[in-house]
Every structure is written in C-alpha cells, then in structure tokens.
Amino acid sequence: MLSETRSRLPATRKFGKYYTFAIPSNSRYHTPTLQPSREPMPTESVDPDHKAFLVDYMGRLHRATAVDDAVFAQISATRAAWLRAREQGGRVIFIGNGGSAGIASHLAIDLAKNASVPALCFSDASMMSCLANDYGFEDWIAHAVRLSARAGDCLVAISSSGRSKNIINAVAQARTMKLGVITLSGMNAENPLRNLGDVNFWVDSRSYNIVETTHQFWMMAAIDLVIGRAEYPAS
User: Fold this and answer.
1) Model confidence pLDDT, tens digit, residues 127-184
2) Fewest CB atoms within 10 A around its CB: which of 59, 60, 122, 194?
3) How far apart are the C-alpha atoms of 144 and 53, rounded to whole Å?
4) Would you state the torsion angle of the CA atoms of residues 116, 118, 121, 127, taken in this order, to the nearest 10 degrees?
5) Are strands 2-8 and 20-24 parallel, antiparallel or unpaired?
6) Nearest residue to 92 (alpha-carbon basis) of 102, 104, 100, 101
7) What's the rounded Cα separation, in Å, for the pair 92 and 120?
8) Are 197 and 181 in contact (CB under 8 A)?
C-alpha cells in the first residue's frame, strides 16, 4: 500500500520536469516516527563505587597530563623537528603497535592535512604481513623504515611500555640512517625506549589508556603549535 505522502526529489529532474514518487509505507526507505524516551537517563544519580573509580581515574589523567617547562620545551622541540623535516624535503614517520598504531595513524593524517607537514605511518596490512613473514615481527618496522625512509625524515616512535622490540629495532634502524627520532613511552621510568631519541616524552603512569591518551594529547598540542591555533575548521 502506498503512503499518502508523496516526495518531490530534485535528483529525478529530467527535461525540465520533476518526477514524483510514492513511497510505500512498508518500504525500507520509509522514515519511522521517532518517539521521545519515556524514561530519560538520570543526570545526577551516580553509583558511589562508580564515582569513586572515576574520580580516581580522572585524577590519574590530570596528573599525567600536568605539564611543566620541561614538557613545554619537548613539545616545542618536536615542532622544530617536524618543520626541519619539511624544510629538508623529508617527512614525519609515525610508528606504534595496537592502540599506539591507531594514534600514529591519527597523528600522521592530522599533521599532513591540518599542519601541511608531510607525514605517514606504516599501517598497510600487506606490508606488515610481508615484512613480518620475511624478517620476523620484531624487525618488520625496522625493515619498513629501511625501505621507505629517506634523508631528512623524522621518526616518531610510540610505545606505552617503551619495551616493544619492533619499535626499539626501528629506532636503531633510523639511527643508522641518521634520521631525527622522537620517542613516546610510559610505565617504567627505566624503559629502554626513553633514552633513544633526540626528544623523549615519558608519561608517569602504569595505565595503558592514560599513557596513550597523554601521548596523543601532547602530540596534538605539537601539531596545533605548528598551526599556531587551537581552533580551526576541519577542512
């Protein structure tokens, strides 16, 4: 059965006329009427245990992202390294595993699109499986750097624990190619990655999510420092 309402669709214009279509009421294109919820979610009632957990959790994040002049200097030095790479005809290469790989991809896109600094990350599944199959997982990123990096590039190595062997080996490869290196790590203050870069960020937390959130926040701050603004259109 056809609904009584008929739609005029400009996309169907032909020879100066518009065609009108009747949409069946049982069609998958039929827009259902939305009913407001009769039981809105509570806005003030919070389980005491949940609140205690979240207060502690937000406190951890606040402490992790608290900055001093040393962190400001590192963010400023990161900006300088990225601009130097661009001036030398190089790119910024972001690497990471798991959640850090997702952050690497996000940062590469934003740095290239919003800050006009050429950037990339090794996220192609075929490349990963090929190099891991041929050289082993601990060395696949090092070989990706060997194959793809060039003079003037800057490597940003992200590892929450600072102990990921494929990240450490990639940094070693970057060093043999005389690339600039920036590291981001957390957890143990004595992790091996922390001392391998020209600029070394370290998050004083043992929570993976807080370390990763802080890494992304600091790098986004560096991107916006390149742009010179905190607010700008998406395109």
Assistant:
1) 999 999 999 999 999 999 999 999 999 999 999 999 999 999 999 999 999 999 999 9
2) 59
3) 41
4) 140
5) antiparallel
6) 104
7) 6
8) yes
CB-CB neighbours of 132 under 10 Å: 17
> Over the range 21-42, which residues count as b (16 or more CB within 10 Å of their CB) and which as e?
eeeeeeeeeeeeeeeeeeeeee
Residue 168 contacts residue 197 (beta carbons within 8 Å): no
Domains, the chain, in order of start with CATH, read: 68-227 (3.40.50.10490)
Pairing of strands 180-185, 154-158: parallel
Q: Which two tokens stand for residue 134?
A: 């041929």
Distance between CA atoms of residues 67 and 79, nearest Å: 17
Cα separation, 177 vs 170, in Å, equals 11
Considering Cα of 199, then 205, then 206, then 210, what sign does the dihedral take?
negative
Tokens of 132: 């891991």
Q: In whole numbers, what is the pLDDT of the chain averaged over residues?
A: 89
